[in-house]
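In this section we walk through a basic example: taking a raw amino acid sequence and producing a predicted 3D structure, encoded as discrete structure tokens. The instruction is simple. Fold the sequence below.
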Amino acid sequence: MSFIYRSISIICVIFLSLTSILIFPTPTLAVGITENHLTSCPTSPNCVVSQNGDEKHAIEPIPYHGDRDKAKETLLKVLTVVPRTEVVEQTDNYIHALSKSRIFKFTDDVEFYFPTDEDVIHIRSASRVGDSDLGVNRRRMEQIRLAMQDLNVY
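The resulting token sequence is shown next.
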């Protein structure tokens, strides 16, 4: 009997958690570049950023060698194979994509900034709702980094 009660309790907790996320979503954070920096992460652990990130949010930028436009072109190709990810905005020095989770279709903002004075791509990935992302944003960015490395960008 305790197994049944535990199972029901777990299901209720999951249901209530998902319901609260859908009913009381965290407001969408600002995206984009302000004063040559990507937006900082909120206090929740569901974000990583390569500029001015504290210890739990920091991630290294993606270095590249050679032409910035070629690095950007390669990154855009990589993003076409990242599951459930769509580029929604791009300028000469910025890419904004949306990535959706497979089951619940939660949206993450995925951003890339190409500063003119560095041979790196600054990165940011943040969940729009909830608190924990179970490390999804960090893993996504590290997979993109590996793909860029495999394509000999750095």
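Looking at the output, two observations stand out. The chain has three helices and eight strands. The chain has a mean pLDDT of 88. In the next section we compare this with other chains.
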